[in-house]
Amino acid sequence: MSKRAQGKSVVHLHNSDLKQVNLLYPKLEEQQKIGSFFKQLDETIALHQRKLDLLKEQKKGFLQKMFV
């Protein structure tokens, strides 16, 4: 695509150039599996973040008890 781009300051492509570009993408089933994987990953990250937040609060509580 960079070979078809024109201009120096502002690079642009013409519609006719874009029509000639072939895009490869996974089939719908594979896209759904990928989406499911990332959703599960997001949920796992959120779970660990909540766990970390609770541990930080626990640490704060222990430190307050130590110096009282």
Question: Your description of this structure?
Answer:
One of its GO terms (biological process) is DNA restriction-modification system. InterPro entries: Restrct_endonuc_typeI_TRD, Restrct_endonuc_typeI_TRD_sf, Type-I_RS_S_subunit. With 68 residues, the chain is mainly alpha-helical. The protein has a domain of 41 residues. Helix content is 65%, strand content 0%. The protein has 2 helices and no strands. The chain starts with 14 loop residues before the first helix and ends with a helix.
Total number of helices: 2
Structural class: mainly alpha
Name the overall outline.
Answer: elongated
Record field, number of beta strands: 0
* Biggest sheet descriptor: none
* Separation, N- and C-terminal Cα atoms: 67 Å
User: Beta-sheet strand percentage?
Assistant: under 5%
Secondary-structure element pattern, one letter each: HH
The averaged pLDDT comes out at 87
Radius of gyration, in angstroms, nearest whole number: 25 Å
What's the topology here?
Elements: H1 15-19, H2 28-66
Family: Belongs to the type-I restriction system S methylase family.
Organism: Fructobacillus pseudoficulneus
GO biological process, one term: DNA restriction-modification system
Descriptive labels:
mainly alpha, 2 helices, elongated, DNA-binding, DNA binding, Restrct_endonuc_typeI_TRD_sf
